[in-house]
Protein backbone atom coordinates (compact mmCIF):
# COMPACT_ATOMS: atom_id res chain seq x y z
CA UNK A 1 0.00 0.00 0.00
CA UNK A 2 1.24 3.50 -0.87
CA UNK A 3 2.44 5.64 2.00
CA UNK A 4 0.28 8.68 2.67
CA UNK A 5 1.73 12.11 3.39
CA UNK A 6 0.32 15.56 4.08
CA UNK A 7 2.38 18.71 3.45
CA UNK A 8 1.36 21.99 5.04
CA UNK A 9 2.67 25.02 3.18
CA UNK A 10 2.62 22.82 0.10
CA UNK A 11 2.53 25.75 -2.31
CA UNK A 12 5.53 27.50 -0.73
CA UNK A 13 9.16 27.24 -1.75
CA UNK A 14 10.16 24.28 0.43
CA UNK A 15 6.72 22.69 0.60
CA UNK A 16 6.26 22.58 -3.15
CA UNK A 17 9.67 21.03 -3.67
CA UNK A 18 8.94 18.43 -0.99
CA UNK A 19 5.51 17.66 -2.42
CA UNK A 20 6.89 16.93 -5.88
CA UNK A 21 9.64 14.74 -4.41
CA UNK A 22 7.09 12.75 -2.40
CA UNK A 23 5.14 12.08 -5.60
CA UNK A 24 8.35 10.84 -7.23
CA UNK A 25 8.95 8.56 -4.23
CA UNK A 26 5.52 6.95 -4.66
CA UNK A 27 3.64 8.61 -1.82
CA UNK A 28 -0.03 9.46 -2.00
CA UNK A 29 0.24 13.17 -1.28
CA UNK A 30 -2.12 15.84 0.02
CA UNK A 31 -0.96 19.45 0.19
CA UNK A 32 -2.41 22.38 2.10
CA UNK A 33 -1.64 25.86 0.79
CA UNK A 34 -2.94 29.27 -0.11
CA UNK A 35 -1.57 29.72 -3.64
CA UNK A 36 -4.28 28.23 -5.82
CA UNK A 37 -2.26 28.66 -9.01
CA UNK A 38 0.54 26.47 -7.66
CA UNK A 39 -2.07 24.20 -6.09
CA UNK A 40 -3.68 23.49 -9.44
CA UNK A 41 -0.25 22.71 -10.91
CA UNK A 42 0.26 20.20 -8.10
CA UNK A 43 -3.11 18.64 -8.85
CA UNK A 44 -1.94 17.94 -12.39
CA UNK A 45 0.91 15.97 -10.80
CA UNK A 46 -1.54 13.79 -8.90
CA UNK A 47 -1.52 15.72 -5.62
CA UNK A 48 -4.69 16.33 -3.64
CA UNK A 49 -4.63 20.09 -3.14
CA UNK A 50 -6.59 21.63 -0.27
CA UNK A 51 -6.80 25.45 -0.15
CA UNK A 52 -6.99 26.01 3.58
CA UNK A 53 -5.79 28.21 6.43
CA UNK A 54 -4.30 26.44 9.46
CA UNK A 55 -6.72 28.28 11.73
CA UNK A 56 -9.44 25.73 10.93
CA UNK A 57 -8.72 23.17 13.65
CA UNK A 58 -11.48 20.71 12.81
CA UNK A 59 -10.67 20.66 9.12
CA UNK A 60 -6.98 20.16 9.87
CA UNK A 61 -7.82 17.24 12.16
CA UNK A 62 -9.98 15.70 9.44
CA UNK A 63 -7.23 16.00 6.82
CA UNK A 64 -4.56 14.56 9.13
CA UNK A 65 -6.67 11.44 9.67
CA UNK A 66 -5.28 8.51 7.69
CA UNK A 67 -1.90 10.11 7.00
CA UNK A 68 1.30 8.23 7.77
CA UNK A 69 3.39 11.40 7.95
CA UNK A 70 2.56 15.08 8.21
CA UNK A 71 5.28 17.48 7.07
CA UNK A 72 4.60 20.85 8.67
CA UNK A 73 6.35 23.38 6.41
CA UNK A 74 3.82 26.21 6.68
CA UNK A 75 4.88 29.32 8.58
CA UNK A 76 4.80 33.07 8.45
CA UNK A 77 8.47 33.87 7.88
CA UNK A 78 9.61 37.48 7.61
CA UNK A 79 11.95 39.90 9.38
CA UNK A 80 9.09 42.35 9.93
CA UNK A 81 5.42 42.26 10.86
CA UNK A 82 2.83 42.23 13.64
CA UNK A 83 3.38 39.75 16.47
CA UNK A 84 -0.30 38.75 16.40
CA UNK A 85 0.02 37.62 12.79
CA UNK A 86 3.11 35.53 13.54
CA UNK A 87 1.43 34.02 16.60
CA UNK A 88 -1.71 33.04 14.70
CA UNK A 89 0.24 31.38 11.91
CA UNK A 90 3.19 29.84 13.70
CA UNK A 91 1.81 28.95 17.13
CA UNK A 92 -1.92 28.41 16.68
CA UNK A 93 -1.39 26.84 13.26
CA UNK A 94 1.19 24.43 14.65
CA UNK A 95 -1.07 23.62 17.59
CA UNK A 96 -3.82 22.57 15.20
CA UNK A 97 -1.43 20.43 13.15
CA UNK A 98 -0.11 18.78 16.32
CA UNK A 99 -3.65 18.04 17.48
CA UNK A 100 -4.43 16.53 14.09
CA UNK A 101 -1.37 14.27 14.24
CA UNK A 102 -2.16 13.14 17.78
CA UNK A 103 -5.76 12.39 16.85
CA UNK A 104 -4.87 10.60 13.61
CA UNK A 105 -1.74 8.81 14.79
CA UNK A 106 0.52 10.38 12.16
CA UNK A 107 4.22 11.05 12.52
CA UNK A 108 5.00 14.78 12.49
CA UNK A 109 8.06 16.20 10.79
CA UNK A 110 8.14 19.81 11.93
CA UNK A 111 10.15 22.49 10.14
CA UNK A 112 11.46 25.01 12.66
CA UNK A 113 14.31 27.51 12.36
CA UNK A 114 17.81 28.19 13.70
CA UNK A 115 16.74 31.82 14.06
CA UNK A 116 15.91 30.87 17.65
CA UNK A 117 19.69 30.74 18.33
CA UNK A 118 20.22 34.37 17.37
CA UNK A 119 21.68 36.55 20.13
CA UNK A 120 23.29 39.40 18.16
CA UNK A 121 26.78 37.94 18.64
CA UNK A 122 29.10 35.79 16.55
CA UNK A 123 28.33 32.13 17.22
CA UNK A 124 30.04 29.21 15.51
CA UNK A 125 29.22 25.48 15.43
CA UNK A 126 26.00 25.85 17.38
CA UNK A 127 24.59 22.57 18.69
CA UNK A 128 20.90 21.89 19.17
CA UNK A 129 21.45 21.59 22.92
CA UNK A 130 23.28 24.90 23.32
CA UNK A 131 21.51 27.49 25.50
CA UNK A 132 18.99 29.73 23.77
CA UNK A 133 18.96 33.50 24.30
CA UNK A 134 16.71 34.73 27.10
CA UNK A 135 14.89 36.99 24.65
CA UNK A 136 14.15 36.17 21.04
CA UNK A 137 15.26 38.67 18.40
CA UNK A 138 12.09 38.83 16.28
CA UNK A 139 8.41 37.98 16.35
CA UNK A 140 9.18 35.21 13.87
CA UNK A 141 11.81 33.48 16.00
CA UNK A 142 9.78 33.98 19.20
CA UNK A 143 6.71 32.31 17.73
CA UNK A 144 8.69 29.52 16.09
CA UNK A 145 10.19 28.72 19.50
CA UNK A 146 6.69 28.59 20.96
CA UNK A 147 5.69 26.32 18.08
CA UNK A 148 8.51 23.93 19.01
CA UNK A 149 7.15 23.85 22.54
CA UNK A 150 3.72 22.87 21.20
CA UNK A 151 5.39 19.89 19.54
CA UNK A 152 7.49 19.04 22.60
CA UNK A 153 4.44 19.07 24.87
CA UNK A 154 2.59 16.64 22.62
CA UNK A 155 5.64 14.36 22.47
CA UNK A 156 5.84 14.26 26.26
CA UNK A 157 2.15 14.17 27.15
CA UNK A 158 0.46 12.44 24.21
CA UNK A 159 3.23 10.23 22.82
CA UNK A 160 3.36 12.08 19.51
CA UNK A 161 6.00 10.70 17.15
CA UNK A 162 7.75 13.87 16.01
CA UNK A 163 11.05 15.13 14.68
CA UNK A 164 11.95 18.81 14.42
CA UNK A 165 14.35 20.15 11.80
CA UNK A 166 16.07 23.54 11.92
CA UNK A 167 17.25 24.25 8.36
CA UNK A 168 19.43 27.30 7.84
CA UNK A 169 18.98 29.82 4.98
CA UNK A 170 17.26 27.66 2.36
CA UNK A 171 18.04 28.66 -1.21
CA UNK A 172 17.67 27.29 -4.73
CA UNK A 173 15.43 27.67 -7.79
CA UNK A 174 12.09 29.00 -6.59
CA UNK A 175 13.58 30.93 -3.65
CA UNK A 176 11.44 34.04 -3.16
CA UNK A 177 13.20 35.45 -0.13
CA UNK A 178 16.90 35.13 0.62
CA UNK A 179 18.77 35.45 -2.68
CA UNK A 180 16.11 37.59 -4.43
CA UNK A 181 16.28 40.10 -1.55
CA UNK A 182 20.05 40.32 -1.91
CA UNK A 183 19.77 40.72 -5.68
CA UNK A 184 17.20 43.50 -5.40
CA UNK A 185 19.26 45.27 -2.74
CA UNK A 186 22.31 45.14 -5.00
CA UNK A 187 20.31 46.40 -7.97
CA UNK A 188 18.91 49.24 -5.90
CA UNK A 189 22.28 50.30 -4.58
CA UNK A 190 21.55 49.55 -0.93
CA UNK A 191 23.48 46.30 -0.42
CA UNK A 192 25.41 46.84 2.82
CA UNK A 193 28.67 44.95 3.25
CA UNK A 194 29.23 45.04 6.99
CA UNK A 195 32.60 44.32 8.58
CA UNK A 196 33.99 43.77 5.10
CA UNK A 197 31.70 40.78 4.55
CA UNK A 198 33.81 38.71 6.95
CA UNK A 199 30.83 37.10 8.69
CA UNK A 200 30.80 33.31 8.41
CA UNK A 201 27.46 31.84 7.37
CA UNK A 202 25.75 28.54 6.64
CA UNK A 203 23.27 28.10 3.81
CA UNK A 204 21.28 25.04 2.71
CA UNK A 205 20.29 24.00 -0.79
CA UNK A 206 16.58 23.23 -0.93
CA UNK A 207 16.94 19.64 -2.15
CA UNK A 208 19.23 18.88 0.78
CA UNK A 209 16.46 20.01 3.12
CA UNK A 210 14.01 17.78 1.25
CA UNK A 211 16.41 14.86 1.75
CA UNK A 212 16.47 15.60 5.48
CA UNK A 213 12.67 15.72 5.63
CA UNK A 214 12.38 12.31 3.96
CA UNK A 215 15.02 10.86 6.27
CA UNK A 216 13.08 12.19 9.26
CA UNK A 217 9.94 10.50 7.99
CA UNK A 218 11.71 7.14 7.96
CA UNK A 219 14.00 7.56 10.98
CA UNK A 220 13.91 4.92 13.69
CA UNK A 221 12.55 5.37 17.20
CA UNK A 222 15.86 6.59 18.62
CA UNK A 223 15.56 9.80 16.59
CA UNK A 224 12.01 10.62 17.67
CA UNK A 225 11.53 13.70 19.79
CA UNK A 226 14.84 15.09 18.57
CA UNK A 227 15.76 18.44 17.05
CA UNK A 228 18.26 18.58 14.21
CA UNK A 229 20.22 21.38 12.58
CA UNK A 230 20.29 21.15 8.79
CA UNK A 231 22.81 22.97 6.59
CA UNK A 232 25.06 22.29 3.63
CA UNK A 233 27.89 21.77 6.11
CA UNK A 234 30.03 24.27 4.17
CA UNK A 235 30.34 27.55 6.11
CA UNK A 236 31.39 30.44 3.88
CA UNK A 237 32.31 34.09 4.23
CA UNK A 238 29.43 36.34 3.19
CA UNK A 239 31.71 38.27 0.84
CA UNK A 240 32.64 35.05 -0.98
CA UNK A 241 29.00 33.96 -1.30
CA UNK A 242 27.92 37.32 -2.70
CA UNK A 243 30.84 37.60 -5.09
CA UNK A 244 30.10 34.14 -6.47
CA UNK A 245 26.36 34.79 -6.76
CA UNK A 246 26.76 37.98 -8.76
CA UNK A 247 29.51 36.49 -10.91
CA UNK A 248 27.18 33.64 -11.88
CA UNK A 249 24.40 36.14 -12.61
CA UNK A 250 26.86 38.31 -14.58
CA UNK A 251 25.83 41.32 -12.49
CA UNK A 252 28.14 43.98 -11.09
CA UNK A 253 28.51 43.64 -7.33
CA UNK A 254 27.94 47.08 -5.82
CA UNK A 255 28.10 46.81 -2.04
CA UNK A 256 28.12 49.72 0.37
CA UNK A 257 30.88 49.18 2.97
CA UNK A 258 29.49 49.98 6.41
CA UNK A 259 30.63 49.61 9.99
CA UNK A 260 28.25 47.50 12.06
CA UNK A 261 27.17 50.33 14.44
CA UNK A 262 26.40 52.65 11.54
CA UNK A 263 24.40 50.00 9.67
CA UNK A 264 22.45 49.10 12.80
CA UNK A 265 21.66 52.75 13.56
CA UNK A 266 20.52 53.35 9.98
CA UNK A 267 18.29 50.28 10.11
CA UNK A 268 16.81 51.49 13.38
CA UNK A 269 15.87 54.79 11.76
CA UNK A 270 14.27 52.97 8.84
CA UNK A 271 12.27 50.85 11.28
CA UNK A 272 11.00 53.96 13.09
CA UNK A 273 10.01 55.51 9.80
CA UNK A 274 8.17 52.33 8.80
CA UNK A 275 6.23 52.26 12.07
CA UNK A 276 5.30 55.92 12.20
CA UNK A 277 5.05 57.06 8.60
CA UNK A 278 4.80 54.00 6.33
CA UNK A 279 1.88 52.24 8.06
CA UNK A 280 4.03 49.33 9.13
CA UNK A 281 5.39 48.54 5.68
CA UNK A 282 8.60 46.52 5.88
CA UNK A 283 11.65 48.81 5.69
CA UNK A 284 14.38 48.17 3.15
CA UNK A 285 16.71 47.23 6.00
CA UNK A 286 16.03 46.03 9.55
CA UNK A 287 18.35 45.67 12.53
CA UNK A 288 17.80 41.92 12.42
CA UNK A 289 18.89 41.79 8.78
CA UNK A 290 21.97 43.85 9.67
CA UNK A 291 22.72 41.27 12.34
CA UNK A 292 22.28 38.35 9.97
CA UNK A 293 24.73 39.73 7.42
CA UNK A 294 27.06 41.36 9.91
CA UNK A 295 27.53 38.57 12.47
CA UNK A 296 28.72 35.00 12.05
CA UNK A 297 26.43 32.06 12.72
CA UNK A 298 27.23 28.46 11.79
CA UNK A 299 25.59 25.24 12.92
CA UNK A 300 26.86 21.82 13.94
CA UNK A 301 25.02 19.14 11.93
CA UNK A 302 26.60 16.12 13.64
CA UNK A 303 23.30 15.03 15.20
CA UNK A 304 21.53 14.99 11.83
CA UNK A 305 24.37 13.01 10.28
CA UNK A 306 24.41 10.44 13.08
CA UNK A 307 20.71 10.10 13.94
CA UNK A 308 19.07 10.68 10.56
CA UNK A 309 21.83 9.62 8.19
CA UNK A 310 21.80 13.10 6.65
CA UNK A 311 24.46 13.86 4.06
CA UNK A 312 24.21 17.02 1.92
CA UNK A 313 24.20 15.99 -1.75
CA UNK A 314 24.23 19.35 -3.50
CA UNK A 315 27.17 21.59 -2.66
CA UNK A 316 27.03 25.38 -2.45
CA UNK A 317 28.70 25.92 -5.83
CA UNK A 318 26.35 23.57 -7.68
CA UNK A 319 23.36 25.02 -5.83
CA UNK A 320 24.35 28.57 -6.75
CA UNK A 321 24.71 27.55 -10.40
CA UNK A 322 21.24 25.98 -10.41
CA UNK A 323 19.72 29.06 -8.81
CA UNK A 324 21.44 31.43 -11.25
CA UNK A 325 20.36 29.41 -14.28
CA UNK A 326 16.75 29.35 -13.10
CA UNK A 327 16.80 33.06 -12.20
CA UNK A 328 17.99 34.04 -15.68
CA UNK A 329 15.59 31.62 -17.37
CA UNK A 330 12.63 33.05 -15.45
CA UNK A 331 13.49 36.61 -16.33
CA UNK A 332 15.32 37.62 -13.18
CA UNK A 333 12.31 38.25 -10.97
CA UNK A 334 11.01 36.50 -7.87
CA UNK A 335 7.50 37.29 -9.15
CA UNK A 336 7.98 34.53 -11.72
CA UNK A 337 8.01 32.00 -8.87
CA UNK A 338 4.92 33.22 -7.03
From TrEMBL:
NAD-dependent epimerase/dehydratase domain residues: 5-230
Regions that span the bilayer: none
Matches recorded under Gene3D superfamilies: NAD(P)-binding Rossmann-like Domain (3.40.50.720)
Name of this protein: NAD-dependent epimerase/dehydratase family protein
Amino acid sequence: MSRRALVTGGTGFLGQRLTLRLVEEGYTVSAIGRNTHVGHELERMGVRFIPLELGDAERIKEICHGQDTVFHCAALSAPWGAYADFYASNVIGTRHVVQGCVSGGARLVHVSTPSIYWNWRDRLNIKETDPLPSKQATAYSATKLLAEREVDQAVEEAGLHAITLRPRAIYGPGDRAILPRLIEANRGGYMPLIRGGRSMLDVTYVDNVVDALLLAAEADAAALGGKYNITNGEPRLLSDLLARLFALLEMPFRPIPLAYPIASAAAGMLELNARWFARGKEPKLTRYTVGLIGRSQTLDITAAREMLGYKPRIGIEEGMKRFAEAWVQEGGSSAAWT
